[in-house]
Amino acid sequence: MTVTLDLSHRRAAAADSPATVAPETAPARTSLVGLTLDEMREAVLALGVEPKKAKMRAQQIWRWVYFFGARDFGVMTDIGKDLRALLEVHHTLDRPEVIERLVSADGTRKWLIRSAPGVEFETVFIPDVARSGALCVSSQVGCTLTCTFCHTGTQKLVRNLTAAEIVAQVMIARDDLDEWPSTTDGRALTNIVFMGMGEPLYNLDEVAKAIDLISDGEGISIGRRRITVSTSGVVPKIEELGNRTGAMLAISLHATNDALRDVLVPLNKKYPLAELMAAIKAYPGLNNAKRVTFEYVMLKGVNDSPSEARALVKLLAGVPAKVNLIPFNPWPGTAYECSDWKTIHAFADIVNRAGYSAPIRTPRGRDILAACGQLRSESVKTRASVALKERLAAADTPT
After folding, report:
1. Which of 136, 206, 338, 372 is an active site residue?
2. Strand partners, 135
3. Measured between alpha carbons, how far is 329 from 214 in angstroms, rounded to an integer?
4. Do 71 and 164 lie in a common domain?
5. Do residues 72 and 156 both lie within one domain?
6. Where does [4Fe-4S] cluster bind (predicted)?
7. Contact 298, 327 (CB under 8 A)
8. Which of 26, 38, 252, 323 would disulfide-bridge 358, Cβ 3.0–4.6 Å?
9. 57: pLDDT confidence band, cut at 50, 70 and 90?
10. Number of structural domains found in the chain
């Protein structure tokens, strides 16, 4: 026997009933950290502020973000309550998450920062003996270059950092050092060096935007002469860097001839020393008051001989320059060793006698593994270890 069910009355009833509506999901709030003044104005306009008032309101908010380092819209007392409420609904003043903070016995501080799942980078504050210090910021997560002496170079590129993520590194350091508002009186963080993870000139648009934000006198206010960008030698971008940013230039050199530099800095195969030195000599604004810094890592038996020192002096002829001699910091698996101190001082003496300043960089933060790339390496190894344990556990689980 076949039974037929008449469900038409149910369909009719359903048609007369209100449709079930999924609850609306509130739009994700976006951080104002990293916005330019023009972008801040667009954000204010999007909240319904009259165009005539939007510029002024944007300037007020911008100053609260970058001069005062505000973390709460409630402190913005010169902005009306209604606008503050709208800002609270649609935006935040959040920085990326600090997942690890280390402080060395010598005062060096290092932060491991996560801005998104799998996007982790480091920034290091290196205090000087006087009340000043440099913040070493990253421009990429990982690196495409494979410099054989550099641990970061063993880690694949994840992606470029945004200007917001670069600026946030400065703001996180300012938060930790308690250096808001942005006055120049007695502050410890006085200089910025793009010498962290990545090759800045492979991310020049975001680096230039970040420098504009960091150097603005109405905000963070670190002058362009106090910002140094280091490159391994991306020759076509060097002049553009100078024209767009006015920043100081540093070159990750490490060798005085193409044969050795091809090994230490493989990018040299694409842009050999002759091309690199020509680009350096054409750097906008180069003079005795705006010298190029050449970074030279001291590798035992590789590039530390007196003849190499003399070759370095010859290479630098006609270039307003100083040389930073960097004792090599060994890392697991490296084939290199650090030159002994006697050799390093002898090398420095030759360069100094030729008229170039050649300070020996004092190793800082070794007790917290603060050498470039080491802390990031630890996070990579930790994640790999966790993933391995999860795979093993899954393999042991009966199906």
Report:
1. 372
2. 125, 192
3. 30
4. no
5. no
6. 143, 147, 150
7. yes
8. 323
9. very high
10. 2
In this predicted structure, the answer to whether residue 373 has a pLDDT above a threshold of 60 is: no
Q: CA–CA separation, 356 vs 363, rounded Å?
A: 21
Helix (H, G, I), strand (E, B) or coil at 360: strand
Tokens matching residue 330: 């060994």
Residue 21, in any domain of the structure:
no
Provide the CATH number for the domain around residue 185. Answer: 3.20.20.70
- Dist. CA 372–CA 252, nearest whole Å: 13
d(CA 385, CA 390): 9
My answer on whether 84 and 222 are in the same domain is no
| DSSP characters over 234-280 | -HHHHHHHHHHH--EEEEE---SSHHHHHHH-GGGGTS-HHHHHHHH
- Asked if 36 contacts 210 with a C-beta cutoff of 8 angstroms, the reply is no
Q: What is the pLDDT of residues 64-116, one digit of tens each?
A: 999 999 999 999 999 999 999 999 999 999 999 999 999 998 889 999 999 99
Same-domain status, 239 and 361: yes
- One domain for residues 208 and 66: no
Q: Does the active-site annotation cover 372? A: yes
Single-letter amino acid, residue 214: I
Q: Which residues are annotated as a binding site for S-adenosyl-L-methionine?
A: 198-199, 230, 252-254, 329
Place of tokens 């991310």: 203
Task: Answer whether residue 23 is part of any domain.
Answer: no
Beta strand 109-116 with 97-103: parallel, antiparallel or unpaired? antiparallel
Q: Do 208 and 274 share a domain, yes or no?
A: yes
Does the annotation count 122 as an active-site position? Answer: yes
Same-domain check for residues 155 and 301: yes
- The tokens describing 12, both together, are 């009719």
> Considering 120, 122, 165, 308, which one is annotated as catalytic?
122
Outline where the chain has alpha helix (H).
8-16, 37-46, 51-66, 81-90, 163-177, 204-215, 235-245, 258-264, 273-281, 306-315, 341-353, 374-396
Instruction: State how beta strands 91-92 and 292-298 pair.
Output: unpaired
Domain carrying residue 88: 30-92
Phi, psi of 37 (to 5 degrees): -60, -40
Residue type at 105 in one-letter notation:
A
pLDDT tens digits, one per residue of 20-39: 444 555 668 999 999 999 99
At 372, is the secondary structure helix, strand, or coil?
coil
Question: What band does 7 get if pLDDT is binned at 50, 70 and 90?
Answer: very low
Report the CATH number that the domain containing residue 87 is assigned in CATH: 1.10.150.530
